[in-house]
């Protein structure tokens, strides 16, 4: 059986349980008010936030890229998400608490690109000479840096909570590098 055949079989299993239980379908048009978090994570196949953090269907929007980094492209997507919410007439968190979680990890593939500033500079839309400051070899520093860069975006609601965590692929545990706090103090 090919990879896609296996996936299609698994999807039949999924659909039989999830939709028959009425878990997804009835709430679909109202799904967004249930969204409690936006998780920014790495594309690495070992670090799916749904697995690591037990995120359930409808609970969080997950944006993944190489490294789980805050890049101009990622910021553009956050803006588009906000616009979708406006058009749909719903507020993230349904008016309650809403969290941005930046999730990076040890042994990240982006570390293999650290010696290639010509590749990373356009990704971050910075000069090649500035790539070293992005600390792609050190996820703890990178998480803290990316939290700070989102805090600097005035268009994001000040009351949203933000945190930065690093997943250790060796232990399976996440380490809270930046504890949850509002994006900006009131
Ligand atoms: Zn990674």
Automatic annotation (TrEMBL):
Please list every transmembrane segment annotated in the UniProt record, as residue ranges: none
Q: Which family does it belong to?
A: Belongs to the beta-class carbonic anhydrase family.
Could you tell me which Pfam families the record lists for this protein?
Pro_CA (PF00484)
Please name the top-level EC class of this enzyme: lyase
User: Required co-factor?
Assistant: Zn(2+)
The question of whether rRNA processing is a record keyword is answered with: no
| Top-level division of the source organism's lineage | Bacteria
UniProt entry tagged with the keyword Cytoplasm:
no
> Recorded E.C. number(s)?
4.2.1.1
Name of the protein in question: Carbonic anhydrase
Q: What is the phylogenetic placement of the source species in the record?
A: Bacteria, Pseudomonadati, Acidobacteriota, Terriglobia, Terriglobales
Cofactor stoichiometry and binding?
Answer: Binds 1 zinc ion per subunit.
For binding Zn(2+), which residues are annotated in this chain's numbering? Answer: 42, 44, 105, 108
